[in-house]
Amino acid sequence: MFDNFNDDDRGQVGIGTLIVFIAMVLVAAIAAGVLVNTAGFLQATAEDAGQESVNKVTNRVEVLNTHGVVGAEQDIDNITMTIRLAAGSSSVDMNETSIKYLSGGNVTTLTNSTNLDGDGDAISSERTFALYKVTDDDGSFGVLNSMNDRYEVEINTSAIEGSNDANLGGGLTTGEQVTLEMTSRTGGTTQVILTMPQQLAGRNPGDPVEL
Question: How far apart are the first and last CA of the chain?
Answer without folding.
Answer: 107
